UniProtKB/TrEMBL annotation:
The chain crosses the membrane at residues 12-29, 49-71, 78-100, 129-148, 160-176, 182-200. This is Phosphatase PAP2 family protein. It comes from the Bacteria. It holds the Pfam family PAP2. Keywords: Membrane, Transmembrane, Transmembrane helix.
Amino acid sequence: MKLKTTTRKIAPISLLWILMAVSLLYSFTNRPWGTVRNLTLPVDGKIPFIPGFVLVYHTWYPLSLSLLFLLYRKERRIFVESALSAILGNLFANATFLLFQTEVPRPQDFGQGFLEGILRATYGVDNPYNGFPSIHVLVTTVLVIGILRTDFSRREKAGIMAYGILIILSTWLIRQHVFLDILGGILYGILVYGFTLRLFTKDKVTSLFDGV
């Protein structure tokens, strides 16, 4: 008699736990490793410093979770591809931090108002290293690509993309990153998504993950 064997598939939602675990690497690598570089360009000095954008900057966390939730509900396969891209992107970024560490110059005296206080607290808990590539920008790029691949309406896609761009700009306007960090985050996001699509083909995703 032939016994039927079944392979247990992975629950797609488990990728969120893996992403959160991988994100913890940031606090380990966010220190001066070897030669620390400054990637500031003349264009960085021409961009205004606007502490109020710290509020937009901190919406990255709820936005990322919200977009992942939308993808999970809308198109499970694209959710898996986007979550895997974010996980791999975090791993590649942290490997870069170890091999090519950078430091972002920050303003020292910028007032004592409420918004300035939030920004000062942000600086206090986040060392000025791990600049290139920006993980904020990388993950935002990955999730926007995921949204653009769904059948959301043009208006919905445009709104999400516009807010994603606003978050990317916020990293620059509050001096959490310099221009090359942002460019690197966008490039890493695009490349890692393409790499994920090649590594995890549609058939492979279907065979590995439950309900896809």
